[in-house]
UniProtKB/TrEMBL annotation:
EC number(s) from the headed UniProt entry: 2.8.4.3
Binding, [4Fe-4S] cluster 1: 32, 68, 106
Predominant location category: cytoplasm
Encoding gene, per UniProt annotation: miaB
Family label: Belongs to the methylthiotransferase family. MiaB subfamily.
Sequence positions that bind [4Fe-4S] cluster 2: 184, 188, 191
Entry protein name: tRNA-2-methylthio-N(6)-dimethylallyladenosine synthase
Species name: Mesorhizobium australicum
Reaction catalysis annotation: N(6)-dimethylallyladenosine(37) in tRNA + (sulfur carrier)-SH + AH2 + 2 S-adenosyl-L-methionine = 2-methylsulfanyl-N(6)-dimethylallyladenosine(37) in tRNA + (sulfur carrier)-H + 5'-deoxyadenosine + L-methionine + A + S-adenosyl-L-homocysteine + 2 H(+)
Amino acid sequence: MNEEMMTLEPRGAGDVAAGTAPKRYFVKTFGCQMNVYDSQRMADALAADGYSATENPDDADLILLNTCHIREKAAEKVYSDVGRLREIKAQRKAAGQQTTIAIAGCVAQAEGAEIIRRAPLVDLVIGPQTYHRLPDAVRRARAGEKVVETDYAVEDKFDHLPAPKPAATRSRGVTAFLTVQEGCDKFCTFCVVPYTRGAEVSRPVGQIIAEAERLAASGVREVTLLGQNVNAWHGEGADGRAWGLGELLRRLADIPGLARLRYTTSHPRDMDDGLIAAHRDLPNLMPYLHLPVQAGSDRILKAMNRKHTADDYLALVERIRAARPDIALSGDFIVGFPGETDEDFEATLDLVRKVRYVAAYSFKYSPRAGTPGAGMADQVPEAVKDTRLQALQTLLNEHQADFVGALKGKPVEILIERQGKEPGQVVGRSPWLQPVIVDEKAGGIGDIVTVRITGTGYTLYAEPL
Ligand code: SAH
Ligand code: SF4
Ligand code: F3S
């Protein structure tokens, strides 16, 4: 049963004998795609250590919450979730079973040992830079130690994290995430990421290509490159030259089987010519770009430390659209940043009207301890934030509805990703990320087929061509 058992690190004194009952883990993921990717890599590390997955926390010897710290609500959610595990842990204990509760992710990195002080039920706190040490940390926790692993490891975790078995990759579907860049050096004044994820680090080209080839060999058709600032990625190419994300995408586009490439999240300041040229030249780089702007007022952009103006952003969008006319943009917005007046907010609406995003995430500003924004004067009242958020979302929704409405009757290429809920249906995805439901006659999972859009809404309906 443990033939896959693999030692990542020398075992400590707290080792539990191998070959005892099989162990199960349950993982719940919050936050961004990087956490989704990290949860998979932690799952791979646990699988290599003899664990199997369960969907049911009652059955789990290890309950792992991969957390997000970005807004207060997200961070506080961890504590209510842990509270709900109290009963499970007690019941399992009464049945003679040990339950280890582990907190990973950005709350783990930001709060460290404080989590165990506030929630003594927690046995293990592990930050994103040390996930390769998870199996060892779990062993120590199961031997009775309260474990806090939040130091930045000197070794590269990616050199130590085991790859998933091809079957595990296949079970995750025909689309996959691949983290190429971590951390952030931008220090926007509202944001915790530079503190929770550390400085910008790029994974080396060879590591990324090997991982992408492995994914493709297991049947993955679409890879989304991830990074907190994915377009800040840089590295040394196979040709010895300095590569940016554009060159990396060109190389990945040559991997047989990989039909679609995406990347997220990009910062406007790192959209260089090489990346824009990649959008012009690479048919398998999808015409969709998440390019957060946060606000449309130069005064607020400055206070946010975004280091660009609204006009800089609009000029950039124009250059990108000139290179790839069918590109669709999505964005992130914050309303109610300290000092934001009605006039500033109007400037955000103006910018939105000019860009016409096809999708967007908009948030009320949430003051985060330790960030400069939290200490600024003129915090905006909640009620004002509410009104502005509503107005912004109404506008964004209109644009989104216009975009999908215009697809009706048109042929669209979709990647078929999974079975539909109804028998005989499959669900694919458009180049612009909308789910598309179509009869299974259109093709099988992993196929890229052209269908005609018949109905639109959040989900699109289509007929085979
Ligand atoms: N690196 C990305 C964003 C990562 S965080 C970028 O630079 O665009 C994801 C989104 O959460 C941000 O784009 C922002 O819109 C939102 N966000 C971050 N901190 C926030 C805060 N304190 N309050 C409200 N929203 C916030
Ligand atoms: Fe946060 Fe700004 Fe860095 Fe994005 S660029 S992760 S918003 S500090
Ligand atoms: Fe949240 Fe961390 Fe991602 S704070 S948004 S999980 S980088």
